[in-house]
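tokens incoming
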């Protein structure tokens, strides 16, 4: 079953269960998917949907940080719930050890020697970990490794 179809089925299930919080989060995701399909005039693949989910997760994390710094825990809790719903559609996440193993292989393959090669390493590692690891964490690990 494609990811888009799974999201649609989950939306129907949330409607039947009258789970308004989950339904709202899923509808936000569906709206983002449809908007991208209309804008780009394409049918999104599972990898495109995953990249849309990652973008939404980044936005939610930024919002959570802003709300918590403003002492708006009520709004931060809503965003945290949306993050938990969105994460259910991502593939199994890699552990830090697995990411470090991939990073070492990419550094050797690209011949990276210093921080100036970070963009080269990032470009090579991104397709290998897309949707399976937080790119912010990857970036930090690359800086630590090359710096």
């Amino acid at each position: 079953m494609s990811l888009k179809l799974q999201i649609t089925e989950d939306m129907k299930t949330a409607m039947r269960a009258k789970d308004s919080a989950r339904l709202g989060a899923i509808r936000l995701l569906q709206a983002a998917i449809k908007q991208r399909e209309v804008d780009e005039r394409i049918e999104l693949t599972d990898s495109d949907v995953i990249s849309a989910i990652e973008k939404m997760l980044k936005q939610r994390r930024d919002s959570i940080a802003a709300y918590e710094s403003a002492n708006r825990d009520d709004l931060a809790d809503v965003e945290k719930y949306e993050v938990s719903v969105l994460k259910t559609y991502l593939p199994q996440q890699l552990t830090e050890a697995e990411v470090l193993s991939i990073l070492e292989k990419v550094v050797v393959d690209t011949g990276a020697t210093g921080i100036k090669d970070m963009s080269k390493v990032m470009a090579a590692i991104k397709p290998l970990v897309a949707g399976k690891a937080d790119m912010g964490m990857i970036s930090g690990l690359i800086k630590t490794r090359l710096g």
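note: Helices lie at 3-17, 20-40, 46-69, 73-87, 96-110, 118-129, 135-146.
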